[in-house]
Amino acid sequence: MITRELFYGFSSSGIAFFYIIGFSVIAFFLFGIYRHIRKYAKGKELVTKVDLLQNIKKAAIDIFSHKTIKRRDRYAGLAHSLVFYGFLIAFIGTSIITLEYDITKPLFGITFWHGYFYLIFSLILDLGGLAMFVGIIMLMIRRSSFGLEKLGYIRKYRGENSPRPIARIWKRGDWFFLILLLLIVISGFVQEGIRLAIDNPEWKHWSPVGVVVANILSSIIDVESAGATIRSVNWWFHGLIALSFIALVPWYKAKHIITAIGSLMFRDPMALKRLPRIPVVDVTDSEHEEIVGVSKIEEFDWKNLLHLDACTKCGRCHEACPARDSGYALSPRDFILDLRTYNETAAAGDGVNLIGDIISPETLWACRSCGACQEICPVGIEHPTMIIQMRRHLVDQGKMDPLLQSVLSNLSDKGNSFGESPKSRADWVKTLEFPVKDIRKEPSTYMWFVGDYAAFDPRNQIVSRTVARLFKVAGVDFGLLHEGEKNAGNDIRRVGEEGLFETLVEENLEAFNKAQTFQSIITTDPHSYNTIKNEYPEYGETPDIEHYTTVIANLLESGKLKVRKPLNKRVTFHDPCHLGRLNGGYEPPRKILELIGCELVEMPRNRDNSFCCGAGGGRIWIPDDPGTAKPSESRMEEAAKLGAIDYFITCCPKDLTMFEDARKTSGHEDDFLVKDIAELVAEAIELDKLSLKDVPQLMEDMANVIVDKVIKSVNENVDQIIQTRLEIFKQSYDASLTKPLIRGESALELAAAVEQHVATPENEMTVPQEAMTSEIIASDKRPVETHAPKEPATEVITQSALPKALGSVLDVTWELNKLSPISFADLDVEPKNKIRIFVAVKHVGKILSAFSIQENHSDVAGEFIDYEFNEFDDNALEAALRLKEKHDTINGEGSAEVIAVTVGDESAEDTLRKALAKGADRAIRVWNDSLIGADPFVLAQILAGVAEREDVDFIFTGVQSADKANGATGAIVAGILNRDCAAVVVDLEWDGGSSILVSRELEGGVIEKLQMPTSTVFTVQIGSFEPRFASMRMIKQAKKKEIKVIEFNDSMQSQSTPGCRIERLYQPAVDRAEMLEGSVTDIANKIKEIIEGAK
Amino acid sequence: MTNREVLVVVESINGNLADISLELIAAGLKVKHQIEGTLTVLLCCVQAQTQSEAINCQGVDNVIYVNLEQDNNYSEANAKVLEKVVIDRAPKIVLAPHTVNGYAYGPLTASKLGAAFASDVISIDCESGVVRATRSIYENKVQMEISFPGAGLVFMLVRGAVYEAAKPGGNGVTVAYNITDFTADMKSTHLEFIPAPVSSIDIAKSEFILSIGRGIGSEENVDRFAKLAEKLGATLACSRPLADAGWLSKPHQVGLSGKMAASCKVYLALGISGAVQHLHGMKHVDTIIAVNTDPAAPIFNVAKYGVCADIFEFADALEEAL
Description:
heterodimer; A: alpha/beta; 5-stranded parallel beta sheet; 37 helices; 10% strand; elongated; B: alpha/beta; 9-stranded mixed beta sheet; 17 strands
């Protein structure tokens, strides 16, 4: 019978011995597997469920095609596939033998391992063995003589020059794995060879490698005499190392045979495109705190832990990582290996904090979340997701770069990362030749989601306008959300501020819903594109979104944009990570470049291998360490090497910003220009020669010309107007009086004239304010553009609402009248059982660059003010919180409380919430509309009243409010309460006693140190007590804390105090720079004079 | 005739008369003439009599000084002295400096007196005794004109560097004011003055800044502008890319991630295009002079004077002009 005997020449005890070993091996193998499963079981449930069937299919394709291994390294791919398929064949072959020998034959008497089946089996296994042999040798050569730095595990970015002990162990493990496999293969062939040499069966040529080995053996040994011994000894050698191999699989590098399959099977097809949400934990009924992010190994999900074991240390991620490439302290591989090494021995409650103990915060912050590592990982590890989960913890702890912290604060206050007013979000359209729709009011085909950089960054604004003009020419109907749009949140989420991300998503989704009808969203920003496309749908119904490259490519193809002048430029193109790698948008930009006649020269790293500009993952908001290379600069070098490139093209606002910088700093300023793809399209269609104005717009312009002429003539006749105006005043005691709004240079004189007129007692008037709305020229509510090109004095002067009779200070006799606090006697106050620290905070206004004044002159018109937590008070709160913590350490937890108090309307609760989120225990808001425009005396009397009623021990506030800048409230409170005041405090040291060591910053940076009573009112300097970060999660939780609202009424005021009254508000004239002309020498002389004059 | 006294409080710390003192006297003089009254200057410090000469400016009618035996908590001391002097003399107008100490004793004293009060005043008009003052609010973007109806005493803190200093050489009557042992019941104790560190560069405190941006091209050119800054007596500053590249150390950087040019009066920006983040740190400066080759550079939107020129040529010309 054509077959071979399995246990040739074995005694039954020998066979039994083999079986005992075999079962032990299986047990040891299973024990190893069990230990791993137990390790993974520590991890959390998966947040994102996977479609297992689909994943298995995809994993199978990846594994059998080897495409994840072949990518960017065909040699390794080929070698590995030889080993893989050889191993697979050997494994299947062995299984078939086991199937017959141990199952079908003893149980059913069925045999099949003979005859042709056996012959073909022999041939395939023979070839499989050969493949494995070749593959292993190839890998050994690669490892020993390719000089691959990544396989040395030396962390150059950490300044290492030689491998650490563990790296040596890894290297030995790598070689052990290869050598073990090689020995199995060789001993297998020796066994086959010796068998063929001894038995010499007539079908031996079905085992061609075996025959070769048999011939070699026959030529070097005497088969007759030594053959049997070799056969028997080698059998055991082969058998034992093969079994050892199996036994050891779970215990070293070989485990990837299993873990990689698992890792690939549970791979998230949306990894990084869509980050996992933080599971909502109901914290109300449990004592334990909500866990945000990952700082302990068991806080990862089990798949992440499986990822750790799947890593083969191949180093592809290490090579691809832009952070590692630029010398940052991050290698995705080392990140995984460090976690894995720790996880081998990690025990619950070992007190190890992953962040700091295992992975440094610098490493976490180095990530650009470009996805290059997970893209190239052959075993499907999702490094960025793990990094971001750990960042979430850091952000929740407020541990981050101060600049990033201020960006996040800006985002939560203003909805944009620039800290600009939300109202100025659409300012970039103002210089367009045509009106742009507000989609909140008018329906349109597309809603253009602009994104922060495209809306606020001056260089990108130019691109945005170009895109708008292209759309206009092509007849693309679009509208903007104006301040309805908030930062899309993509990078905020990748920074790790999940709470803020969710808030932004909710706000944007609401804006989408409230907008008039539109078909889909378009954007120029790949970051917004990614999150809206992939992440928003988890939070609510989200319209489709397209990147502008797709839209423009279609417009060019359909002829709606006509190329008039093919550019004939040699260009290279940078694939934005969020467009290309994450969303596959590789072709539309290339199509555009082709259609406008550009010769595209690809950089070596293109498409999925595109090299991040370094801005992603919030890195654009984190300053690079001085002197470090930047990924964007490395990219510039790459482009420059292409030679003779005209343009470096991007289609991402952040890219444009990064590369515009990098082109200059990397010294390639003369080599090529950095352009947005839209700018090239504009050039190709000769946009500058096309008329963009609508016909109706033209008419509007004509109307404007007429209006301008009228105004001009009015100005010329201003004297006459003054006359008219005076007449009106004289005649209209009971008529609705007017609020003059006058343009032109004579405005001041006019105002003065009017004032002089009304100041005379016989013209004293009492007219209700609401009656004063008639107009002399035009009630122009349009804000004044402070940066508008210089026009002859466009200052708007608005006369005081009411003509007032101003008394002379000489006519009034002064009486000593000490201010007293407002009495809040009726207010319920908790019995005092702890130290009370009072912090007065203010919700301050910040005005837009263009604004107008309210008609009644109490303030700037509300629509031009954004409100925020006064930064001085934020510092004061921090000082108070630190004092509380100090008190707690001395007198026990909970022995002091911080009360944040404000005088303001309901909107001021935003600031109180922030104070509560940061750690204030209680908040009180006092208000009545009669307090609008109240002077510092009244505010201080109220604050003093609350402080007195609450019987507070410490009083803090900021030096001044950023808006009205009186810098007086704190000191007045002190005066009222007969306390002392320390102004401009920069440091406090307190040991729990009745006095406190105060440092104040005097003029010129002199510090004064004082010993003061703790009852002193401290006004805290900005920048001295760096405020802690309140994450959006904390702000949301603070919503559960109560804010006590006290309705103020005038009857609480027991004394009448002389106050100051606002007569009028006006804008000092601000203009664009006066451009100095003339010879450079003349200019220099003029500047010298200016400098001397201004100093 | 009613008392028409204008009382001006001046300061001296560490033996140096504060610059703002003579400016305040000038403001007081203007008011004195407008109300046809008298001007009294008050100084409370260590060895005050030695400085009484310096504050006896032309037009000053009375100089009152309070001698302290040693440095003290000037905020508290001034509050006590001022309260007493005002009660004794019942002036119509009190002007105090808007200084760090003024922040404390000014409003505190005003609240105890029942005076009408305004702080950080940049101009005062008192024609016929009708007091009108101008303040700047919203980061100096808006001017606010205020009056004090019904007030018999107006107390104002006046900003520095808005009035020209008064001229010395007056012949006012100098009086030492004896307040019996008022330091005995001081609540606080002055410990020490720690002078500001001298060598380190401090953008926030510099009044004249020469700031360079990417327009300088390469690191080698930094020295060239450092020399110009030295010759001008300006502090050398830069925009973010230069600090990031390590061409200048981080403390030189002006902007969102760097320093605020908080005290700056003249800001000479060479080769800075004016990124939003940079503008954040300097756009409030009164006199901004920008030199850039790009006429559309955003820096020109905030600058008072603009020059469209090559910065190297300009630097050479300016150096020659000095």
